[in-house]
Amino acid sequence: MAEPVADEQPKPRIPVEGHHRDVNGGWLRPAVFGAMDGLVSNFALMTGVVGGNVGNSAVILTGLAGLAAGACSMAAGEYTSVASQRELVEAEIEAERLELSRNPHGELAELAQLYVSRGVEPALAHEVARQLSADPDQTLEIHAREELGIDPHDLPSPLVAASSSFVCFALGALLPLLPYLLGATSLVPALVLSLIGLFVCGAVVARVTARAWWFSGLRQLLLGGAAAGVTYVLGLLIGGHVG
To answer: Is the separation of the CB atoms in 172 and 44 below 8 Å?
Structure first.
């Protein structure tokens, strides 16, 4: 008779790379919010002009100007913002590199103390810090992660952010303009297409915010619709006096 096999201990589950969403927003954030900004701003701009009772050619010209100006402005702003952030991070990494070369023992003690503060026994924390500090490149990466909360090998690219923002803003801004370019003579087709686009953009935002897709979509539809409504009323009130 076979002896009963002892119950095996459950094996620890090894975490899988990529389990979490990308929260750094290298290209996804400027792409999503660029498209949404383009749609909302150009839709509201064109609606305000329509409220001023102008011809279709003026509406199309306004939409094209809003698309070009907005896309360039968004790209320039995104590039400057991400480049400035990257330069600041690189300066901090360089400062950490210099400190590691000037005071390696102090930095090792600092890393060990960090592990102690997280519950590791002092002797073990010091040994872990010592082994991790054997490779200078690895040491810099660990200190950057632990002290600065950044990954030196995963810094956002200003060009990627600016390009994503430019292209997606232009695509979003094109949506309310498209019916007019195809021959529409009233605001209704642009209104319907823009409201659908607002809901879709809001639903896509749930990809980076963890909100329910229907909630994000409905929220963006209401906000974008309200912005267009305000500019339309302003166009009605001001258009007659300007004309």
So the answer is: no
pTM: 0.76
Contact 89, 148 (CB under 8 A): yes
- Phi then psi for 212, rounded to 5 degrees? -65, 140
The candidate with the shortest Cα–Cα distance to 71, out of 35, 96, 105, is 35
**Token match 């969403």: residue?**
21
Q: Are the C-beta atoms of 186 and 91 separated by less than 8 Å?
A: no
- How confident is the model over 119-176, as pLDDT tens digits? 999 999 999 999 988 888 888 888 888 888 888 888 889 999 899 999 999 999 999 9
For 56-177, strand residue ranges (E) read none
**Which amino acid is located at 197 in the chain?**
G
Q: How far apart are CA 175 and CA 42, in angstroms?
A: 9
Query: Are 82 and 157 spatial neighbours (Cβ–Cβ below 8 Å)?
Result: yes
Write out the E strands in 152-239: none
From the number of C-beta atoms within 10 Å of its C-beta (0-12, 13-18, 19+), residue 8 rates as exposed
Query: Alpha carbon 81 to chain centroid distance?
Result: 12
